[in-house]
């Protein structure tokens, strides 16, 4: 794919995604003219680029859809479910063609616009009153020094007011208003200006006597038309280059930290004369280098951060169509779309969130008849929410459906042979059974669920990015899944600890405080317990959990898990922001990466999910063992 086509595909895919979001918004607010104009502009922009790239199927679909939106905008076509569905299908077709191009398909190999799409678009336009037919204008034929004409290449409009009409029946002023964002110019162009900038074959026509002139905003002598080109303040950079830059920035910070430690050790020796002056200069230079490397790291990280709204905006249509297929009335509520997270997390969360939304619709939300028998509203609600909590990003998917029955989950898992009779005795452990490979409560597999290959994929994807997932469910009230992920994947704030001589690090996101451990403990059921701030907490040895030889552990770390506990270690060496390298050659339960400390020592990084689960080996790991 050449660079121009690649750039067009990337920008057009963003526009196509925005179109779906605008259409679903228009379905809720049919009188929103701003949304209609935004839709018109999006399809116009895609059509112009597609015409330049010689993509006739996309041009045809966009042209017909422009006619539909023109009718909606002028009130000649009502906003009906058919019109919304036609727009969604057109957007889907355009998106599919763009994805094929992104995957390496040749432009001339793309299929033509299907007749079914043309039929539904034509049916949606049928309510439009007779108007002159519109002939598409090739984007390549528009001269670069005619900005008004270039922006006005689109379907015909019948807005009232002053207008100039070409031989093809184009209403230049109305189209100008449709494609130029509101507030860009202090006043709408007059017929004289449009006539002067239009091609030679355009002639101004007299305004009909019975038409009322368009309302004009009050003139402001201080305002001047914007004539200079708007400066582009963004550029597209290959993600691989950003990843490489971030790795170099992280390593530079680590190198600066190691140099600082070495310099601190050198200052313990006595230097005199010129050596002392050189040491002072070296200390100042290293301090400056360390500060700049930290700023470089922070700036590089910011380039990878993206709002989760980029991901969330793909789901309203998915929920709408699946709910329609299942015969359920569901409203998807999105909150916190502006929350920023690492680009890699945004890209990798799509499939897990799709699985969870499909499960919420199929398993969680009751059928219409079943829900009508409850006191709940007829329209169910699924909440998709994101927010920042410390150094983590929290993503919640909740529904007000029927909830999960722990006893039924346990019975299903036992019937499938996934667990033994004595496993998953608590409700929390029973809820975790849905993450087992092959687990499903569906008797018969459908196109939506029932094959047991969904939720285990979710847990695997979350833990791959050093995250954790938690379930809360109340039978008859609903279910909530909460995903915790680090905001930055490569650099993690950690606490450095030692146990049995091994250097370990644990994410600071779950560390509440450090306490001193006594010589002896109280016991509950044979397990050691320590009272912390008035509450008894279980004490667990990190050495014993990881298989090290257990010695005298003097320090306890209070872990902020769903069920808090104290993790016993030999010593705490401090805190550090570490560059984490994932384990690839082998899998160690409880450990998900390695790092280098400021002294250059190799450190094992304990998994966040492992700590939140109470340092218990997952059920899947037990089965594998």
TrEMBL record:
One GO MF term attached to the UniProt entry: protein histidine kinase activity
Every Histidine kinase domain range: 225-489
Claim: Signal is one of the keywords in the record: no
Domain HPt, chain residue ranges per copy: 1-101
Enzyme class, broadest EC rank: transferase
Catalytic activity: ATP + protein L-histidine = ADP + protein N-phospho-L-histidine
Entries under InterPro entries matching the protein: Bact_Chemotaxis_CheA, CheA-like_dim, CheA-like_homodim_sf, CheW-like_dom_sf, CheW-lke_dom, HATPase_C_sf, HATPase_dom, His_kinase_dom
UniProt cross-references to SMART domains, sorted A to Z: CheW, H-kinase_dim, HATPase_c, HPT
Keywords, in A-Z order: Kinase, Phosphoprotein, Transferase, Two-component regulatory system
Modified residues (Phosphohistidine): 44
EC number: 2.7.13.3
Name of this chain's protein: histidine kinase
Organism of this sequence: Noviherbaspirillum album
């Amino acid at each position: 794919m050449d660079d121009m086509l690649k750039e067009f595909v990337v920008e057009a895919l963003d526009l196509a995604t925005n179109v779906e979001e605008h259409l679903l918004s228009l379905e809720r607010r049919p009188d929103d003219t701003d949304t209609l104009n935004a839709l018109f502009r999006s399809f116009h922009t895609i059509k112009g680029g597609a015409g330049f790239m010689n993509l006739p199927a996309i041009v045809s679909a966009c042209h017909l859809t422009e006619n539909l939106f023109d009718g909606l905008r002028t009130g000649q076509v009502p906003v009906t479910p058919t019109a919304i569905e036609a727009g969604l299908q057109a957007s889907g077709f355009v998106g599919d063609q763009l994805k094929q191009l992104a995957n390496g398909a040749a432009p001339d190999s793309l299929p033509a616009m299907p007749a079914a799409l043309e039929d539904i678009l034509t049916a949606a336009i049928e309510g439009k009153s007779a108007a002159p037919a519109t002939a598409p204008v090739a984007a390549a034929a528009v001269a670069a020094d005619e900005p008004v004409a270039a922006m006005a290449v689109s379907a015909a409009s019948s807005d009232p007011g002053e207008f100039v009409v070409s031989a093809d029946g184009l209403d230049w002023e109305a189209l100008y208003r449709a494609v130029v964002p509101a507030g860009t110019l202090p006043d709408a162009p007059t017929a004289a200006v449009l006539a002067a900038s239009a091609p030679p074959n355009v002639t101004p026509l007299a305004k009909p006597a019975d038409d009322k002139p368009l309302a004009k905003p009050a003139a402001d002598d201080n305002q001047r038309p914007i004539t200079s080109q708007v400066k582009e303040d963004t550029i597209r950079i290959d993600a691989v280059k950003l990843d490489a830059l971030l790795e170099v920035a992280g390593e530079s910070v680590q190198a600066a930290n190691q140099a600082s430690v070495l310099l601190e050790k050198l200052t313990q020796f006595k230097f005199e004369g010129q050596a002392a002056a050189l040491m002072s200069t070296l200390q100042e230079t290293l301090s400056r280098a360390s500060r700049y490397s930290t700023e470089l790291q922070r700036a590089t990280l910011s380039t990878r951060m993206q709002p989760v709204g980029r991901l969330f905006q793909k789901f309203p249509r998915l929920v709408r169509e699946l709910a329609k297929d299942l015969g359920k009335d569901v409203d998807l509520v999105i909150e916190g779309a502006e929350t920023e997270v690492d680009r890699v997390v945004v890209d990798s969360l799509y499939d897990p969130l799709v699985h969870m939304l499909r499960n919420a619709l199929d398993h969680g939300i009751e059928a219409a008849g079943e829900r009508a028998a409850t006191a709940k509203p007829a329209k169910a609600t699924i909440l998709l929410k994101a927010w920042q909590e410390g150094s983590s990003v929290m993503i919640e998917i909740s529904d007000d459906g029927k909830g999960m029955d722990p006893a039924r989950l346990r019975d299903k898992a036992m019937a499938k042979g996934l667990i033994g009779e004595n496993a998953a005795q608590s409700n929390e452990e029973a809820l975790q059974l849905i993450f087992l490979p092959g687990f499903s409560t569906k008797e018969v597999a459908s196109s939506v669920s029932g094959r047991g290959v969904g939720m285990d994929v979710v847990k695997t994807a979350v833990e791959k990015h050093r995250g954790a997932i938690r379930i809360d469910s109340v039978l008859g009230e609903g279910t909530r899944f909460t995903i915790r992920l680090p905001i930055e994947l490569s650099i993690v704030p950690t606490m450095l600890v030692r146990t049995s001589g091994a250097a370990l690090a644990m994410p600071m996101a779950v560390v509440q405080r450090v306490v001193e451990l006594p010589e002896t403990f109280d016991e509950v059921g044979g397990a050691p317990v320590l009272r912390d701030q008035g509450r008894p907490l279980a004490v667990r040895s990190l050495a014993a959990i990881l298989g090290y030889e257990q010695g005298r552990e003097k320090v306890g770390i209070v872990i902020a898990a769903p069920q808090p506990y104290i993790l016993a270690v030999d010593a705490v060496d401090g805190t550090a922001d570490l560059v984490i390298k994932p384990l690839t050659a082998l899998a160690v339960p409880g450990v998900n990466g390695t790092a280098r400390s400021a002294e250059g020592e190799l450190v094992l990084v304990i998994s966040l999910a492992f700590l939140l689960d109470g340092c218990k080996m997952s059920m899947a790991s037990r089965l594998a063992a």
